[in-house]
Amino acid sequence: MKTKSILIIILVIITLIGLNSSVFVVEEKDQVVITQFGKPVGEAIIEPGMFFKLPFIQDANYFEKRYMEWNGDPNQVPTKDKKFIFVDTYARWQITDPLQFFKRLTNERGAQSRIDDILDGDTRNFIANNDIEEAVRTSNRIPESSDTGIIGDSLAKIYVGRDSIQNMILESANKQTKELGIKILDFRFKRINYVQEVQDQVYERMKSERFRIADKFRSEGQGEASRINGEKERELKNIQSLAFRDAEMIKGKADATAAAIYADAYNRSSKSRGLYGFLKSMETFEKTFDRKTSIFISTDSELYKYLKKMD
């Protein structure tokens, strides 16, 4: 009886283990390939739910259904115009046919290695087939004016552009990965940097461009300064001539008014004429003579008449 109970317990345990190993759950993020003795059996399971397999004989191989990332190693790549640049890339990929993926690549580590070979090779090929400007720039820019100068007037014209090169690499890579059960969803240049020699050349070209723009602004500024100074001198002379004219007109009017007043006062009577002559003579004496002055005058002079009277 005791032996029978032990056998029953053993059978129950074996049954539970068998049931546990025969049931597997597929989540929304998973897709599963069933293998029997290492070889795939049936179609891949891509819908979520609970499924059964043969215990101990079959295995459930889980693969990611979501998008996965790939980061390339920065590589030094030559361009068509014999310039070397460091190119750092990244991509997003997805397993679209898990059964084919398992047959060709087995697991995600094998897929990452294969994507390395494909994307790195295509990157080198397409970069090498284009000049450096095509890899760096996306489109041709129309020259614009800014506070610092003219922008884009010395840039070389491009015919392909960075975005087109990325799209061509993506298209070429997907042709190669189609039979692997994966798809490259997106490919981008994460960073493109010049090697030191090229950096020096770029900086020198940027400096010469800035110097050219500075010389242009200095020349324009000097021309504008000359024009402003010329206008200033012309305006100053015009103002001075107008002021001199007005001053002379005012002086002339004042002299005419004074002469009219003097004439009116002088012609009123003989006494007024005598007083006027006396005052003018005294004024002349005051302005002309001092203690050290010696003069010779005629007896016909008006001054002599007053001096004689003083005797």
**How many individual helices?**
8
Instruction: Quote the average pLDDT.
Output: 81
Within CATH, the superfamily of the domain at 68-142 and 156-194 carries the name Band 7 domain
CATH class of the domain at 68-142 and 156-194: Alpha Beta
| Share in β-strands | 15-25%
Low-pLDDT segments, ≥5 res: none
Structural class: alpha+beta
Fold-level CATH name of the domain at 68-142 and 156-194: Tetrahydropterin Synthase, Chain A
Spell out the helices and strands N to C.
HEEEEEEEEHHHEEHEHHH
CATH architecture of the domain at 68-142 and 156-194: 2-Layer Sandwich
Number of strands: 11
Shape: rod-shaped
How far apart lie the N and C ends?
A: 184 Å
Evaluate the radius of gyration: 54 Å
Residues in helix, %: 40-55%
The largest sheet is:
4 strands, antiparallel
